[in-house]
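Comment on this:
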Amino acid sequence: MSDNDTTRRRFLQVAGGTTAVALAGCSSSGDGGGSSDDDMDDDSMDNESMDDGSMDNESMDDSEEMDDGDDMDGEEDMDDGMEPTDPADASRVAIDRFSEDAGTLHVRAENPDLPGADEPIDFDANFLTQGYGPDGGVVEYYDFDVQPTEPAPIYAFFRENGDPVEGQLNVVGTVPGDEGYNDFWRVNKVTVPDEYEANTITSAGALMDADYDIETTDTVKNCPIVPDGSTASMRHGDADTGLVEGWYDGEVVSYFTFETLAGAGDSVPLSPIYVSFNTNPGKEGGGPPSGFMTEEGSAQTHNVVATLPGDASYSPLWLVNIYDNADFETVSDLESATDADILASGAANVNCPVVSEE
């Protein structure tokens, strides 16, 4: 049984009763490559870290070694049967977020109305929820389904002087449906020699074989991989809402960019959310299959998030707590949500970035 099958079954049992960077890993300029100065503001990505022991002459070939023809010099790497690939000429990975391997709450086998494999997804139309913030203000957030707390690695490429490799797409080793995939990516900085040509490395396997210096940072990015052409037009603040391109196994993938979680390291932090469903867990068809309870004639739920972007403890990975829908009318903020009758705590961890608030 896959991890997603196990998580889905556990969630439905808990929630439904008998119902079975360019830099920093994800952000980029408009053409899918490059980096801005704003991307360099994390402590783990500053100039001091670029000059520390992990990048010193002992770990890199010195200029004399770069010229002596040793088998590890950058020039020979470039001559070792590897040629740059123009992303515009590359094939694209077929992405399916709703397969049984990829989805937990949103699985096509259980909901045939979900978009088909590799079909663009309109997240504004189908996966945008309106709830409340901790103080009762209206918030909106996307639903990118259940995600684990362990981030997956993403690789961003830099020259020895610390500049990003212009035009190089970031590299990932997993896509939705693969074991170990996560919307949350831990940034790894790859240092390449001056002779390296952008997009010569187009897969995690080729990167490992190249034996370049790789520094694992504590920065985590929320960047869901989606079918090309997908849309999610809202962000908190003025962040770019377009798709960014990356490499996976020699093919191009597309992903959105949301929050940067500086200092998250090897575990994505959790923040509570309190939700209620049209039918309570434990009753036939109860829990997620029945849909969130909303105000009559409105899309307004009384789901309450405990933190907001800008809060020190904010995270888009929500720990789901389910309250009795008999308390729906009394819940309008965090205090009233925690006072409600909680039917299930910690039912799942769901990637739901907040994109607007009153």
Notes: The longest strand covers residues 213-222.
